[in-house]
Amino acid sequence: MGSTINDAFDFFSTIERDMRTVAEEKGLQFEMILGTIQNSLAIDPDPLRQAIIHLIENAIEFTDWGKIELRIRQQDGTLIIEIEDTGHGLSGDHPEDVFDAPGLAKTMQDIKLLNGTITPHTKINVGTQFTIGIPLEN
Questions:
Q1: Which residues 6+ apart lie within 8 Å of 121 measured at CB?
Q2: Confidence of residue 89 (pLDDT cuts 50, 70, 90)
Q3: How far apart, in whole angstroms, are the C-alpha atoms of residue 106 and residue 51?
Q4: How far is C-alpha 130 from the chain's CA centre?
Q5: Is 50 exceeded by the pLDDT of residue 1?
Q6: What angle do the packed helices 8-25 and 45-61 form, to 10 degrees?
Q7: Are 41 and 8 in contact (CB under 8 A)?
Q8: 88: Cβ–Cβ under 8 A, 6 or more apart, which residues?
Q9: Element containing residue 109 per DSSP (H, E)
Q10: How far is CA 128 from CA 6, 68, 69, 119, 124, in A?
Q11: Among 106, 123, 114, 105, residue whose Cα is nearest residue 81
Q12: Are strands 67-75 and 29-34 parallel, antiparallel or unpaired?
Protein backbone atom coordinates (compact mmCIF):
# COMPACT_ATOMS: atom_id res chain seq x y z
CA MET A 1 0.00 0.00 0.00
CA GLY A 2 1.56 3.28 -1.07
CA SER A 3 -0.40 5.79 0.97
CA THR A 4 -0.74 6.15 4.71
CA ILE A 5 -2.69 8.21 7.19
CA ASN A 6 0.10 10.00 9.07
CA ASP A 7 -2.13 11.66 11.67
CA ALA A 8 -5.21 9.55 12.39
CA PHE A 9 -6.61 12.04 14.90
CA ASP A 10 -6.48 14.84 12.32
CA PHE A 11 -7.89 12.58 9.58
CA PHE A 12 -10.96 11.57 11.60
CA SER A 13 -11.39 15.00 13.22
CA THR A 14 -11.60 16.64 9.78
CA ILE A 15 -14.34 14.20 8.75
CA GLU A 16 -16.12 14.84 12.05
CA ARG A 17 -15.99 18.62 11.65
CA ASP A 18 -17.30 18.55 8.09
CA MET A 19 -20.07 16.03 8.76
CA ARG A 20 -21.10 17.66 12.06
CA THR A 21 -21.88 20.85 10.14
CA VAL A 22 -24.10 18.99 7.67
CA ALA A 23 -25.88 17.05 10.43
CA GLU A 24 -26.49 20.14 12.56
CA GLU A 25 -27.93 21.99 9.55
CA LYS A 26 -30.62 19.28 9.53
CA GLY A 27 -31.14 19.52 13.29
CA LEU A 28 -29.32 16.27 14.08
CA GLN A 29 -26.70 15.60 16.71
CA PHE A 30 -23.38 14.24 15.53
CA GLU A 31 -20.87 12.56 17.78
CA MET A 32 -17.48 10.99 17.13
CA ILE A 33 -16.08 8.53 19.64
CA LEU A 34 -12.41 7.96 18.93
CA GLY A 35 -10.98 5.04 20.86
CA THR A 36 -7.34 4.11 21.10
CA ILE A 37 -5.79 3.76 17.65
CA GLN A 38 -2.35 4.09 16.14
CA ASN A 39 -1.53 7.63 15.05
CA SER A 40 -0.05 6.44 11.77
CA LEU A 41 -2.16 3.97 9.77
CA ALA A 42 -0.95 2.10 6.68
CA ILE A 43 -4.24 2.75 4.92
CA ASP A 44 -4.94 4.67 1.72
CA PRO A 45 -6.85 7.70 3.04
CA ASP A 46 -8.84 8.50 -0.11
CA PRO A 47 -11.12 5.44 -0.40
CA LEU A 48 -11.52 5.32 3.38
CA ARG A 49 -12.54 8.99 3.54
CA GLN A 50 -14.96 8.55 0.61
CA ALA A 51 -16.59 5.50 2.20
CA ILE A 52 -17.01 7.11 5.63
CA ILE A 53 -18.37 10.36 4.21
CA HIS A 54 -20.81 8.56 1.94
CA LEU A 55 -22.17 6.44 4.79
CA ILE A 56 -22.56 9.50 7.03
CA GLU A 57 -24.25 11.47 4.25
CA ASN A 58 -26.71 8.58 3.78
CA ALA A 59 -27.32 8.48 7.52
CA ILE A 60 -28.05 12.21 7.53
CA GLU A 61 -30.37 11.89 4.53
CA PHE A 62 -32.44 9.08 6.06
CA THR A 63 -32.51 10.35 9.65
CA ASP A 64 -35.25 12.81 10.56
CA TRP A 65 -34.44 13.20 14.26
CA GLY A 66 -31.89 12.05 16.81
CA LYS A 67 -28.25 11.52 16.14
CA ILE A 68 -25.50 9.96 14.13
CA GLU A 69 -22.45 8.43 15.75
CA LEU A 70 -19.06 7.77 14.21
CA ARG A 71 -17.10 5.34 16.37
CA ILE A 72 -13.49 4.40 15.64
CA ARG A 73 -11.32 1.91 17.47
CA GLN A 74 -8.55 -0.59 16.87
CA GLN A 75 -9.00 -4.23 17.80
CA ASP A 76 -6.78 -7.23 17.09
CA GLY A 77 -4.91 -5.59 14.21
CA THR A 78 -8.09 -4.25 12.63
CA LEU A 79 -9.39 -0.70 12.38
CA ILE A 80 -13.09 -0.80 13.27
CA ILE A 81 -15.33 2.06 12.13
CA GLU A 82 -19.01 2.13 13.03
CA ILE A 83 -21.52 4.61 11.68
CA GLU A 84 -24.86 4.43 13.46
CA ASP A 85 -28.01 6.51 13.03
CA THR A 86 -31.47 6.79 14.53
CA GLY A 87 -33.06 6.82 11.08
CA HIS A 88 -35.71 4.78 9.32
CA GLY A 89 -33.71 1.56 9.12
CA LEU A 90 -33.41 -0.66 6.08
CA SER A 91 -36.34 -2.74 4.94
CA GLY A 92 -36.20 -6.30 3.75
CA ASP A 93 -34.87 -9.56 5.04
CA HIS A 94 -31.42 -9.03 3.54
CA PRO A 95 -29.94 -5.66 4.55
CA GLU A 96 -26.78 -6.47 2.58
CA ASP A 97 -28.88 -5.92 -0.59
CA VAL A 98 -28.45 -2.20 0.11
CA PHE A 99 -25.04 -2.51 -1.58
CA ASP A 100 -26.85 -3.00 -4.91
CA ALA A 101 -27.67 0.74 -4.88
CA PRO A 102 -25.11 2.69 -6.96
CA GLY A 103 -23.81 4.91 -4.14
CA LEU A 104 -23.41 2.09 -1.67
CA ALA A 105 -21.93 -0.19 -4.33
CA LYS A 106 -19.15 2.42 -4.67
CA THR A 107 -18.73 2.45 -0.89
CA MET A 108 -18.37 -1.35 -0.91
CA GLN A 109 -15.81 -1.04 -3.72
CA ASP A 110 -13.80 1.54 -1.72
CA ILE A 111 -13.73 -0.74 1.33
CA LYS A 112 -12.71 -3.75 -0.77
CA LEU A 113 -9.80 -1.69 -2.17
CA LEU A 114 -8.56 -1.59 1.41
CA ASN A 115 -9.06 -5.37 1.86
CA GLY A 116 -11.80 -4.52 4.30
CA THR A 117 -15.32 -5.60 5.09
CA ILE A 118 -18.54 -3.68 5.59
CA THR A 119 -21.62 -5.06 7.31
CA PRO A 120 -25.03 -3.44 7.78
CA HIS A 121 -27.16 -3.97 10.89
CA THR A 122 -30.63 -2.46 10.91
CA LYS A 123 -34.00 -2.29 12.63
CA ILE A 124 -36.99 -0.63 11.02
CA ASN A 125 -37.85 2.68 12.75
CA VAL A 126 -34.83 2.29 15.07
CA GLY A 127 -31.87 2.92 12.81
CA THR A 128 -28.96 1.45 10.94
CA GLN A 129 -25.36 0.73 11.77
CA PHE A 130 -22.63 0.03 9.26
CA THR A 131 -19.50 -1.66 10.60
CA ILE A 132 -16.30 -1.36 8.58
CA GLY A 133 -13.24 -3.50 9.34
CA ILE A 134 -9.90 -2.64 7.76
CA PRO A 135 -6.86 -4.85 8.44
CA LEU A 136 -3.83 -2.87 9.59
CA GLU A 137 -0.36 -3.72 8.33
CA ASN A 138 2.31 -4.16 10.97
A1: 95, 128, 129, 130, 131
A2: confident
A3: 8
A4: 7
A5: no
A6: 20
A7: yes
A8: 62, 63, 64, 124, 125, 127
A9: helix 102-113
A10: 30, 10, 11, 10, 8
A11: 114
A12: parallel
